[in-house]
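Ops channel
N.P.: pipeline sanity check, posting one input/output pair.
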């Protein structure tokens, strides 16, 4: 670790130093992130803005990712402009060299260009410019702030030229490859995974002679995360960051209006005996998304939230997550890694198809074909955390069978020599 990181300075907070700067590896890009004042300043301001959200683990990783990308872009830029500093990337007269550096950083041997990374660099440059301008204005450096404005204007004028083809490529990929039925999880794999997950959870929680150690705790934690993520078709990081307080709300029924339950039918009332519900922040900042907890997983969550059990299995006392990392960590487990680990243990044919995103595609597609009254469908879209249009145009697989049998039959009837005849 560089000595400079051990000496407190007023430019960055101690939390940013310990949770972001100290986590970079000792390689060229990592050292630039730790020592360069411009990149450190941008990272610090991004961290201070995002850390007030509930997604602490994602925030720290997102800030480190942005800083690494900015440092990698600077390495490419420095090959074009000798002895350049990172702040020189935000000078309009250097834009052509910056453009060349972007092209170099996003080259791919397989596909020719990394469209996703290129778009990410565009938004990163906009964020970094905005934060640098704020710092310059606070430091009474009006000339540098004015130059940032000119750079942003040049970037906007060249947006379509530099990034237009990448936006088109990403949209095409989303509309074609990602929405094909072949990309959806297989029914046999889902049945195998569900049976393995439920039976494994039950064998652990119902064993009265089980000696709980960190191994057993992390195993049941991963099983429960995988079960909730795939059952709810939630985004991969959402159930993984459930708080202990949010599980307590589900356990006590804090979100359920008992008066409304009493007015339900007998069948609907039975659901509350087999399922719990809680809410957590979803994508963005302005809405909550529900997490339904089936009774086959509830007992596992009681074990994971038990204070004595957490203590004896090595969970940090101050960790507020229901699915914590162990050994003095205050973070939560990675949802993607938990799902992948359980899929591998279950022996599914293709674990790469059993991800949170592909499950959202699958459930969105199947739901459209179900006989659900139109007035009840908004409840499903609220559960998924998106709108009707997003469900139809992003997640739902195009209904090719219905297109052939319904529309195709009508068009063939119209196209026949004797209009109105169709066999």
């Amino acid at each position: 670790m560089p000595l400079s990181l051990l000496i407190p300075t007023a430019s960055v907070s101690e939390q940013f130093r310990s949770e972001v700067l100290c986590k970079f590896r000792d390689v060229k890009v990592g050292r630039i992130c730790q020592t360069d004042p411009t990149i450190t300043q941008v990272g610090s301001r991004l961290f201070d803005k995002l850390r007030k959200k509930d997604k602490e683990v994602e925030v720290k990783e997102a800030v480190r990712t942005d800083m690494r990308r900015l440092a990698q872009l600077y390495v490419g830029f420095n090959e074009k402009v000798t002895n350049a500093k990172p702040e020189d990337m935000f000078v309009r007269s250097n834009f052509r060299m910056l453009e060349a550096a972007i092209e170099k950083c996003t080259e791919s041997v397989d596909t020719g260009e990394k469209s996703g990374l290129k778009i990410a660099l565009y938004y990163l440059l906009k964020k970094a410019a905005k934060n640098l301008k704020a710092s310059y204005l606070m430091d009474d450096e009006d000339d540098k702030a004015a130059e940032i404005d000119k750079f942003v204007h040049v970037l906007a004028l060249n947006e379509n030229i530099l990034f237009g083809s990448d936006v088109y490529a990403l949209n095409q990929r989303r509309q074609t490859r990602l929405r094909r039925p072949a990309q959806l999880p297989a029914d046999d794999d889902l049945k195998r995974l569900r049976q393995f997950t439920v039976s494994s959870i039950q064998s652990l929680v119902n064993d009265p002679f089980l000696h709980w150690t960190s191994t057993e705790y992390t195993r049941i934690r991963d099983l429960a995360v995988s079960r909730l993520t795939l059952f709810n078709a939630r985004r991969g990081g959402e159930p993984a960051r459930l708080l202990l307080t949010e599980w307590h709300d589900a356990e006590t029924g804090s979100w359920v209006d008992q008066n409304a339950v009493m007015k339900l039918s007998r069948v609907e009332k039975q659901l509350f005996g087999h399922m719990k519900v809680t809410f957590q922040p979803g994508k963005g900042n302005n809405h909550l998304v529900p997490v339904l907890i089936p009774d086959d997983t509830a007992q596992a969550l009681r074990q994971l939230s038990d204070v004595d059990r957490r203590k004896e299995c090595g969970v940090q006392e101050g960790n507020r997550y229901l699915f914590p990392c162990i050994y003095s960590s205050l973070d939560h487990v990675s949802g993607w890694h938990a799902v992948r680990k359980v899929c591998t243990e279950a022996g599914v044919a293709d674990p790469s198809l059993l991800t949170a995103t592909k499950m959202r595609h699958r459930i969105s597609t199947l739901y459209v074909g179900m006989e659900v009254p139109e007035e009840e469908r908004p409840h499903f879209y609220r559960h998924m955390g998106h709108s009707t249009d997003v469900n139809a145009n992003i997640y739902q697989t195009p209904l090719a069978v219905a297109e052939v049998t319904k529309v195709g039959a009508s068009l063939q009837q119209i196209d026949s020599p004797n209009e109105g005849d169709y066999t």
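N.P.: looks fine end to end. The chain has a mean pLDDT of 83.
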